[in-house]
Design goal:
By secondary structure, this protein is mainly alpha-helical. The chain has eight helices and three strands; from the N terminus they run αααββαααααβ. It has a three-stranded antiparallel beta sheet with strand order 1-2-3. The chain starts with a helix and ends in an 8-residue tail after the last strand.
């Protein structure tokens, strides 16, 4: 199992104890596929960011940059600390669009990441049932590994507000 991915998954399980299998899948889907699925057109993406910034409200303490893929090539940039640090949302929007345009995800990579999660659950290193992870993965495979939303409980408890970026496109200085 890739040690860096094991650390990422263990860290997320610790930080987000209400994480469900679908939220784990979303994390690994973003790590493997980037943000391409989230971009329909620039104006829609801009409106989505502006709406989220205006309505996100308070949330848990989060790092500004949260590596979600081994070697840190894909990260979540959490909006609350991003704004608190005085960064420009336009730069974040540009980085998000550049990531969607340039980063090519991989179903094979997603399968490898998911196998790591299955093995961690089998070993009792994730607080999720091994059979539930396996069944969910099989269902997502039959559907062509679609992007999904966070679960209702995850959204209610953690109020996620972030953008998925490829590290080379992070606004500077971050």
């Amino acid at each position: 199992m890739p040690k860096q991915l094991v650390r990422i998954l263990a860290d997320h399980a610790r930080r987000y104890p209400h994480l469900e299998v679908a939220d784990l899948y979303k994390l690994l889907h973003q790590a493997a596929m980037g943000s391409e699925h989230a971009v329909s057109d620039e104006e829609a993406v801009r409106a989505w960011l502006e709406r989220e910034l205006a309505t996100m409200g308070p949330g848990p303490e989060e790092p500004l940059v949260d590596p979600i893929a081994p070697h840190g090539e894909i990260v979540r940039v959490h909006l609350r600390p991003f704004l608190a640090a005085g960064h420009d949302p336009e730069e974040l929007l540009d980085a998000f669009l550049r990531t969607a345009d340039a980063y090519r995800g991989s179903i094979a990579r997603l399968r490898r990441y998911w196998e790591t999660a299955e093995e961690m659950a089998r070993q009792g290193r994730l607080p999720l049932a091994h059979n539930e992870i396996c069944e969910f993965g099989e269902r997502m495979a039959r559907q062509g590994f679609p992007a999904i939303h966070h679960t209702e409980i995850y959204q209610r408890v953690y109020r996620p507000a972030y953008r998925v970026l490829a590290r080379p496109f992070l606004p500077q200085p971050i």
